[in-house]
Amino acid sequence: MSPSPFDSWITNDSEVSSLLAQEWDRQTTTLQLIASENFASPAVMAATGSVLTNKYSEGYPGRRYYGGNQIVDEVEDLARRRLTALFGADHANVQPHSGANANVAVYQALLDPGDTILAMRLDQGGHLTHGSPASMTSKAWHFVSYGVTPRNDDPENPGELIDFDNVRELAHAHRPKLIVAGATAYARRINPEPFREIANEVGALLMFDSAHVAGLIAGGSHPNPVPFADVVTFTTHKTLRGPRGGAILCREEFAKKVDSAVFPGMQGGPLENAIAAKAVAFHEASQSSFPVYTDQIVKNSVAFASALTKEGFRMVSGGTENHMVLVDLREFDADLTGKEAQEVLDRAGITTNRNTIPDDPRSPFVTSGLRLGSAAQTTAGMKEPEFEAIAALIAHALRSRANEDAVASVREDVGVLCHDFNPYAGFTK
Ligand SMILES: *Cc1c(COP(=O)(O)O)cnc(C)c1O
To answer: With a 6 A CB cut-off, is 166 part of the ligand 1 pocket?
Structure first.
């Protein structure tokens, strides 16, 4: 057994040690199907837990406000170099503490308060930072929202896809300074080219928020927005499989503005431990095994969607082209809400999240949908047959939700699957 990347440091705190051990068990004995989650490698976790957590390094490599940053400068430079090489970008900022911070920093860098931003509707797949009334972004900037086309059950011509006529119409009517592409609950490829065309027609800048699909882009399983967008933001912990955090890529002409919007614009000292872990993840994503991984993520997701469809669930937009499936539960069982499905599946050891679907008749707290992702369990080594088995387990648990024994038996089958596909097999907790 290899030692745990972090445990020996905290054995003198039995309360925290015990909680970490419990969470290790939860992650490795239940199925992780939250589309925004993944299993980072022990190397990523080791860097996150390294001595770099001790260092203050406000500023950027070569321009720090504190002494002692020679090595930290090399760490951050390495992360930036690896990242620009991975995506073919001019400039990288690896300091954002999260994807939300990366987005807000870009708005700050490129816009004045009150400027208009055209982004995706929250209830049709957009993110909180795309102008939710609950987010500070909606107070500082004026948002106009585009949506998806109406539902269409013809498999040759699926609906619930980004409505580019709507994007174009709103862009011409409102003349936004910035158009945001990218989503948090959308199972289809997002082609950057039509967004670029529309941005050019109205003289807007284009930001591509690739939080979810950054790993798929790195692996060549989703179109790369870098040649088309002025700025690309993303998280490092979703399909990219790094530490929790954010990053920004941009054209050289925006480099200075973006850097000063991140620091000192909105953040203080960078988390250089997280930046070292980002560098590790960027290296992992540049290996020849990574495209094989991201290709498998998509194959698994496609197999999952088709097995769920056979069980009677309706896939929003008819299917998937990425790591995510968005399930409309109403066809399967008109009484089953997203909230109840999430709760039943939790009892069955299957971790998911409820999600609104386009034109959802239920509230965002209840919902009629379930969002599922294949990235984490693909990291654990699962392939199409396992995802087909999981689809059957989900259907069985939800169909028999009134019967505790049936849900418990699904929980047992889940335990066997997780034992056979443990992402941290060989490491001690
Ligand atoms: C997850 C996500 C974010 C925010 O990332 P955090 O790290 O949670 O702040 C931003 N945009 C999109 C599209 C996302 O899916």
So the answer is: no
